[in-house]
Amino acid sequence: MYDIEKYDQAVDVADAIRALENDPDAVVISGGSDVLIKIREGKLAGCSLVSIHGIKELEGVSLEPDGTIVIGPCTTFSHIANNEIIRRYVPMLGDAVDQAGGPQLRNIGTIGGNVCNGVTSADSASSLCCLNAILVLQGPEGVREVPICAWYAGPGRTVRNHSEVLTAIRIRKEDYEGFGGHYIKYGKRNAMEIATLGCAVSVKLAEDKRHVADLRLAYGVAAPTPIRCGKIEAEAVGREAGEELAERIGKGALEEVNPRSSWRASKEFRLQLVEELAKRAFKQAVLNAGGEWNA
Q1: Residue 283: burial class (beta carbons within 10 Å; 0-12, 13-18, 19+)
Q2: Do the bridges between strand 165-171 and strand 69-71 make them parallel or antiparallel, or are there none, so unpaired?
Q3: Phi first, then psi: what are they for 68, rounded to 5°?
Q4: Share of the chain above pLDDT 90, in %
């Protein structure tokens, strides 16, 4: 049974904002794959829900004239994974969300819910970090944009205010054009598993296709929030892509992460994954960018 005090179905974003303003304890729901589980477990028992499901302006993927990709927060994982814009320009993100849960979850779970729940294990989070995604919020005070690097406020927490609604996830052309990316999720099982560690790498190569012009390295479950490894990213620029650099990236990442032990894995095991997955993801990202690999 689900202990729900009240349910409001918003007809548009403004209606959702009004409903949230009127109820300081209300919870936003779209697909419900996270919220309903928390209600059933008793963590949100007796709460009121404001549903944004079915609001068309919050669904779908589009490409603006300047090349910016706009993803509606109510777009399901399945729609993102199979969308032509995503597959053509940011396939790493499509591959990442296609590893979330099983087919049932991917058909109802939304990318907005995945980032708004604030958890570090979210499959979309590290890829969105590599893409420098911008999250658009609308609330009583108007519209504001938050870079994803400033989105996470702590474990399970974000900077979204109670009465704000996430209305779009934006990825600028400069953050995907010319890049090759790859996401690796490690879990105890091959499917329907929360990530023990997630690693995303995005690489832009120089004209010779042998040297790194830009590197982004991000992790989930390697810290209390999704994290980018800025120091090793900067160090890799200008260096030749190959085994030597991959080893350095793996070692360098260890200096920037802070995983914890849990029932899923020990801190020591996660540190092994941090190093190994960085090397594997970097190599595949280079190949996906059309690069040459110096063995």
Answers
A1: buried
A2: antiparallel
A3: -70, 130
A4: 81
Q: What is the pLDDT of residue 194?
A: 83
CA atoms within 13 A on the CB side of 98: 15
Residue 50's Cβ-count burial label (10 Å; 0-12, 13-18, 19+) is buried
Q: Which of 274, 47, 38 is nearest to 156 (CA)?
A: 38
Helix intervals (H) in the chain: 13-22, 35-41, 77-82, 84-89, 91-97, 103-108, 111-116, 125-130, 230-236, 243-254, 267-288
Residue with tokens 């729609």: 79
CB count within 10 Å of CB 200 equals 33
Cross-strand pairs, 101:
none
What would the 3-class secondary structure string for 32-53 be?
A: CCCHHHHHHHCCCCCEEEEECC
Task: Report the 10 Å Cβ neighbour count for 287.
Answer: 15
At 47, list the tokens: 């709460």
Token output for 149: 């690097």
Give tens-digit pLDDT for 218-237: 999 999 999 999 999 999 99
Residue 42 burial (C-beta neighbours within 10 Å; 0-12, 13-18, 19+) = exposed
Could you tell me the end-to-end alpha-carbon distance of the chain, in angstroms, rounded to an integer? 57
Q: What is the pTM of this model?
A: 0.94
In order of 56, 152, 159, 265, 270, the CA distances from 169 in angstroms are 15, 15, 15, 31, 29
Handedness of CA 57, 29, 228, 121 (dihedral sign): negative
Give the DSSP letter string of 173-237. Answer: GGGTTTEEEEEEEE-SSSSS---SEEEEEEEEE-TTSSBEEEEEEEEESSSSS-EE-HHHHHHHT
∠ CA 37-28-128 to the nearest 5 degrees? 85
Mean pLDDT per 10-residue run, the chain (295 residues)? 82 97 92 78 80 96 98 97 98 95 84 93 95 98 97 95 98 98 86 83 97 98 96 98 98 96 91 98 98 87
